[in-house]
Amino acid sequence: MDTGSGLQRTLVTGGAGFIGSAVVRLLVGKGYHVVNLDKLTYSGSLTCVAGVADATNYRFVEADICDQPALARILAEERIEAIMHLAAESHVDRSIDGPGVFIETNIVGTFRLLNAALDHWRGLDEKARARFRFHHVSTDEVFGDLPLDQGVFTEETPYAPSSPYSASKAASDHLVRAWHETYGLPVVLSNCSNNYGPFHFPEKLVPLIILNALEGRELPVYGKGENVRDWLFVEDHARALEMVLTKGIVGQSYNVGGRAERSNLAVVEAVCDLLDQRRPRPDLTAYRTLIRFVADRPGHDRRYAIDPSKIERDLGWRAQESFESGMTRTVDWYLANEDWWRPIREQRYAGERLGMGR
Fold first, then answer.
1. Which residues pair with 169 in a beta bridge?
2. Tell me, what's the pLDDT at 308?
3. Is the residue at 151 inside a domain?
4. In whole angstroms, what is the distance from residue 59 CA to residue 61 CA?
5. What are 209-230's pLDDT values in tens digits?
């Protein structure tokens, strides 16, 4: 997709969330006209995009992707040329406790967004139709479980979701492909591994460990901490998503991973060791002494591992941050931005059993 003057008019759904806000910050900085659509649920915050809030090529709209008339109005008013769909319920533990909202947002919301996008696309002139893209951003969790010692996810891996969250994302992926195959909507898809970095909501593993450690609280780790994930710095992911949007082949999907597999325990220990260096405890006791193993959650997949060869080969993307450099940047950001995370902690969104998976 040719971005021409660089002022591609792009709608980002979920742009006040963790990954969405990184995408918004990147695109605004590169000169795109960005419309950020977010419902501002518990995990979305305009503080994540405060740095671009006054930009002339940025607009925020509070809306729900399940509200199809509102979507249609926004697409028309803003003359949208591309959609990056990141709005989703994404917390595995929450999906186990209350799957209904995941069905509503991830499946019904995607369905209604697709319908609005299709009507909008059909109303464009021939040149605009050729430029238009619907980029659906998904997760490696749709592929299910891998043995601890072999195998990787490729774009051809069959879907085998294990949790209500991953099942809802798998369903949304299928809807996007169906709207392409049946109606011709020009779509691209991407599936990413575990993200981490600045502005990560404090119930997720990495920020939860950082903040619990700083407060001298226990660091809960599911099971024995053996579950393995591939870790991807969020700004590397945002760059990949722009490449998929602008260079990806219509109808194809791209796996995005950091080539940084680590067990959950290794991640927690790495965070502890960085904090020992950067914010030692008053008594100089190692943060690792706060680690506590807790009962595993239901249906906890053993391992996810992404093969990003396709996006590296075809689109020229590479992760710029290693696990070590990215985690150092992340820890330093949380140490320097207590004014961002402290109010969230005080609202008690982060509980003892939250955040130990994705």
1. none
2. 98
3. yes
4. 7
5. 999 999 999 999 999 999 999 9
